[in-house]
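Recap from last week: sequence in, structure out.
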Amino acid sequence: MSETTLTRADLAEILYQQVGLSRNESGNLVDTLLDSIADALVSRQNVKMSSFGSFVLREKGERVGRNPKTGQEVPITPRTVLVFRPSQSLKQSVSGKKPVGSAS
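Predicted structure tokens:
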């Protein structure tokens, strides 16, 4: 597993170098994009990005769990969870295969 992490600052730097925006504009663009995604999820909207994946909200119902130490049954309350589903092309890229529909 890789030890590196891509951060907001890294994304802003990539925009600065490849698109030609100023560092401030690049940082603001990254923040605006991520804030927009977060706001949509908070307002209960799913987010889909073509060729990347989807952030989907899933409702988990009440269920019975078990305390692993004691074995005692414990009710688990209903909740909403956030799930990321990668697109087929992202899955293929990560696995080293040629993505579907790529020209090269």
